[in-house]
């Protein structure tokens, strides 16, 4: 199998590390070679965070180059636009519709682009947008946005649903397994 790339992006503290660990666990369990690279930036201060995940028969580099990502998983809509150049033709952006103002917007130096997802769609990008925060809260924690989005991503893989659920049990702390499995299910069944 050729090497494929996935980009997970968001704002510091949103759980991109856990999302990449879950994805990595599922792919390793399926027998793929996998490489993960994290770029933290100003993650501790709410800045942009990006994680690259590459998988295939044999992976030599973790970095996803421009035009190589099969999927971009974005925890915040402006981050989807920031990294859209990494998406390959025919790729999919799965994004949370939540708005988190970056520092230039907070200070008044810039305005938040409200129609950013419409602009991406107008450029021919396939965007799957969802209010992952509302679904995470329904599951029991606003912190589960990452797992809700992973549920949406899982629909694009030929990997049994139960294998994803099992991987959540292998990845998260025992006291949070049930809540994360519920969040995953809500993301997986979104739009049905």
Strand and helix map with partners:
Elements: E1 4-11, H1 16-29, E2 33-39, E3 48-56, E4 69-74, H2 77-82, E5 87-96, H3 103-106, H4 116-122, E6 126-130, H5 132-139, H6 145-154, H7 161-171, H8 177-188
Parallel strand pairs: 1-4, 4-5, 5-6
Antiparallel strand pairs: 1-3, 2-3
Helix pairs in contact: 1-7, 5-6, 5-8, 6-8, 7-8
Describe it for me?
The chain is of the alpha/beta class and 192 residues long. It has one domain (4-103, 112-188): 3-Layer(aba) Sandwich (Pyruvate-ferredoxin Oxidoreductase, domain 3). The chain contains eight helices and six strands; from the N terminus they run βαβββαβααβαααα. The protein has helices spanning 16-29, 77-82, 103-106, 116-122, 132-139, 145-154, 161-171, 177-188, and strands at 4-11, 33-39, 48-56, 69-74, 87-96, 126-130.
Structure summarized in a few sentences:
With 192 residues, this protein is an alpha/beta fold.
Q: Can you list the strand order of the major beta sheet? A: 2-3-1-4-5-6
Individual helix count: 8
Rg estimate, integer Å: 16 Å
Major pleated sheet: 6 strands, mixed
- State which percent range the strand residues make up: 15-25%
Spell the H/E element sequence.
Answer: EHEEEHEHHEHHHH
What are its keywords?
Pyruvate-ferredoxin Oxidoreductase, domain 3, globular, 192 residues, 6 strands, single chain
């Amino acid at each position: 199998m050729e090497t494929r790339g996935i980009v997970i992006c968001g704002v510091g503290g949103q759980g991109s590390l856990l999302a990449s660990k879950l994805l990595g666990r599922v792919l390793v369990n399926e027998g793929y070679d996998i490489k993960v690279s994290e770029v933290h930036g100003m993650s501790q201060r709410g800045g942009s965070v990006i994680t690259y995940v590459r998988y295939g028969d044999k992976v030599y580099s973790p970095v996803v180059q421009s035009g190589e990502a099969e999927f971009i998983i974005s925890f915040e809509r402006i981050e989807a636009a920031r990294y859209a150049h990494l998406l390959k033709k025919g790729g999919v952006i799965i994004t949370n519709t939540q708005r988190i103002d970056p520092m230039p917007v907070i200070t008044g130096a810039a305005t938040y682009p409200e129609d950013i997802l419409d602009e991406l769609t107008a450029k021919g990008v396939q965007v799957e947008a969802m209010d992952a925060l509302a679904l995470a809260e329904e599951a029991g924690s606003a912190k589960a946005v990452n797992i809700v989005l992973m549920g949406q991503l899982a629909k694009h893989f030929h990997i049994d649903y139960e294998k994803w659920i099992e991987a959540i049990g292998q990845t998260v702390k025992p006291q949070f397994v049930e809540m994360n499995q519920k969040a995953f299910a809500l993301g997986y069944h979104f739009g049905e």
